[in-house]
Amino acid sequence: ISPFACIGVPPQDLKYRGEATQVIIGDNNDIRESVNISRGTAGGGGLTRIGSNNLFMCFAHIGHDSHVGDHCIFANNATLAGHVVVEDFATVGAFSAVHQFCAVGKYAYIGGGTMATQDVMPYSLTSATRENHAYSINKVGLERRGFTLEEIKELRAAYRLIVGSKLNMSDALASIREKVAAGEFGDKVAYLAEFIGRSHRGVIR
Q1: Are strands 133-137 and 124-127 parallel, antiparallel or unpaired?
Q2: Residue 82 annotated as catalytic
Q3: Could you tell me the domains of the chain?
Q4: Distance between CA 59 and CA 35 in Å, rounded?
Q5: Which 8-state DSSP code applies to residue 81?
Q6: What is the CA radius of gyration of the chain?
């Protein structure tokens, strides 16, 4: 457990009232200058959890009751509101913010200065420079993480159905699930469909 796990929040904070809540931080995290990690609140489950092998650059902020996976990168001033879930290997760019109760999928890359007010799809490059569109998969990042050419090809095809076709989201998901069931798409695409299917706020596309 990192010594940063004992970070306190004054009782006059808007949500925290001095109740017994926690921050739990895993192993091998690099937490740089002026990073703020807020403990959980009674109304949010009482726990903020940080996984292992993450990098938090200067002035990053992790809001109360948020949950961060493993191997994530938070650039300078990257901000999570409360109750945010960031899954493994995601990157949140500098001066970006993720709205409360949103989720960021595995291997997603949020470009600098982006305001993510909906869930961010796994594997996606999502950037404010293109009006918060998921305009491509994170090809370079996926290659660096050992994804095969076939897996990347399948993800490209799935993304075309989601963001490049005239299908609505329900029909696009149905088509993807049919291809998964038929063996045309593998487990990476299956996870993408599962992530979108459980989204409560909708996804950026």
Answers
A1: antiparallel
A2: yes
A3: 3-133 (2.160.10.10), 141-197 (1.20.1180.10)
A4: 5
A5: -
A6: 18
Q: Which residue has the higher pLDDT, 86 or 10?
A: 86
- Residue 54, by phi and psi: left (phi above 0), alpha (psi -120 to 50) or beta? beta
Q: Reduced to 3 states, what is the DSSP secondary structure of residue 56? A: strand
Of 82, 93, 105, 111, which one is the catalytic site residue?
A: 82
Query: Does the active-site annotation cover 70?
Result: no
Residues 180-185: contacts with CB under 8 Å, at least 24 apart: 184/154, 185/154, 185/157, 185/158
Statement: residue 144 has pLDDT above 80: yes
Angle (deg, nearest 10), helices 187-197 and 169-181: 150
Q: Is 112 a catalytic residue?
A: no
What is the residue type of 194?
E
Q: Annotated catalytic residue: which of 40, 44, 63, 64?
A: 64
At 180, is the secondary structure helix, strand, or coil?
helix
Question: Is 141 a residue whose pLDDT tops 70?
Answer: yes
For the segment 115-130, what is each residue's pLDDT rounded down to a tens digit? 999 999 999 999 886 5
Band of pLDDT at residue 204, cut at 50, 70 and 90: confident
